[in-house]
Amino acid sequence: MENRFMNMLLHLGWNLRFKIILFGILFSISACYLGEERESKPKKPSVAPLEQLAVSLSEKGFYFQPQRLVVLTFLDHEGKKSPYGEILAEKLTTELVKKDRFQILDRLANQKVLKEAGLGLDSPTDTATLRKIGDVLKLDVIITGIVTPYQDGVFVNTRLIEIKSGLILKADEVYVRIDG
Fold first, then answer.
1. Which of 41, 47, 123, 154 is the most buried (most CB within 10 A)?
2. How far apart are CA 19 and CA 34, in angstroms?
3. Which superfamily does 49-177 belong to?
4. Given this model, what pLDDT does residue 3 score?
């Protein structure tokens, strides 16, 4: 009986080793196959940060259907004109026009009208000033932004604001790398 028991243990030992080796081979083959499959899938194209903002701000689905808007020059966290404020506002304006969701006023063309009224695209974003800009340009909504430097870029926080009520209808944030 002891002999049979030893033979069975030896058989089980070889059987277990064989199963472990077979499992290892199968695992290696499946890992190679899965790795190849993963690499062969096309990568989803990344969306540029300002295009991402334009898409987010242009999404339909909120109760108010705005028609006319302008993008103000983005300010820093202290309410002063950001060094990147004009270029980021211009780029966002372009991306919003591409979305064909709003009637967007040209920033440069309306600068003179605002200046004559004692206002500007880089005016403070208090409610009274936003209403004045809205009245002068006959706007339904306005987009404001705050630019905050961080490492090798900036965070851009935007708000889509209804002129009449001062309510924020939509808001979003992206990170934009700034090449030095």
1. 154
2. 22
3. ABC-type transport auxiliary lipoprotein component (3.40.50.10610)
4. 61
